[in-house]
Amino acid sequence: MEYIGIIIKYLKNKEKLGCTMNIVERINKLKREKNAIILAHNYQPEGIQRVADFIGDSLELCLIAKDTDADIIVFCGVDFMAETAKILNKDKKVLIPEIKNTECPMAHQLPPEIILEGKRKYKNSKVVIYVNTLSLAKALADATCTSANASEVVNSFKEEEILFGPDRNLGYYVEKRSNKKIILIPEDGHCYVHKKFTVEDIINAKRKYPNAEVLIHPECDPKVQDMADYVFSTGGMVKHVLNSPKDEFIIGTEVDMITRLRIDLEKIGKSKKLIPLREDAICEPMKEITLEKLEKCLLEEKYEITLDEEVINKAKKPIEYMLSLSK
Description:
15 helices; Rossmann fold; 12 strands; 327 residues; globular; four-stranded parallel beta sheet; alpha/beta
């Protein structure tokens, strides 16, 4: 009898520790216990996307972060995304499962001094910066934008000159869709993943899949954009693929965008052929977040995003301006 009692006690302790659960079940249990919400960008690995409460592009996740009732926001993405969530929820705890290796290289291409220099040089301009920037840069902007609403934000201003950064290719995309003079800050800002795509990639893909539509992200080079059937934000790609009567698509953005599309197609019971324009279009910082790191993040409530309150207050205004146009 004593032996049976020891076994029962062991099993109870094992259950209490979550040892009988798989990692996804443990994450979901922690999430419920802590009233946490998991937000994942479209470029996250499949395991993270499937455990997330919401998957989306920068604009979609901004809107969710702004309206959530959760006590804890866990952002599975890169540094500027978690900062944006904190700016919109300064009284909530915002966590990112990995802090050292989740820097977005493009976001770091627009430090505050470049914006200040542009403002001094172009005194009658407005500053519209990509949401893919750090909080100190956002604090100096008149508005932020995403690839989904960049043209709308730029066109909302009466000024003819717009300081725009950091992505020069998104600036090209916007200038074609506005009557504004786009002044790039910096002149050579870019996303290293989208710079990989070439005209030859599209020619080869179309030769191999002649019935497929080519969907390209506006962070790609102008010649690549101009060869595409459509230029979309990642959110735009989702809407197009789900609603299109077509069955084949060549996807010109980060490879795990195809993961997002497959998940959404599964939900509505559809299957379509999705071809990556390049298999090596991988955002390495996005892949730093794993299920193991996510579980540890929820368990230990780290790594927490902390920002200076003055920076939060200043950076919130351009973000809210952008969001006001998205209602």
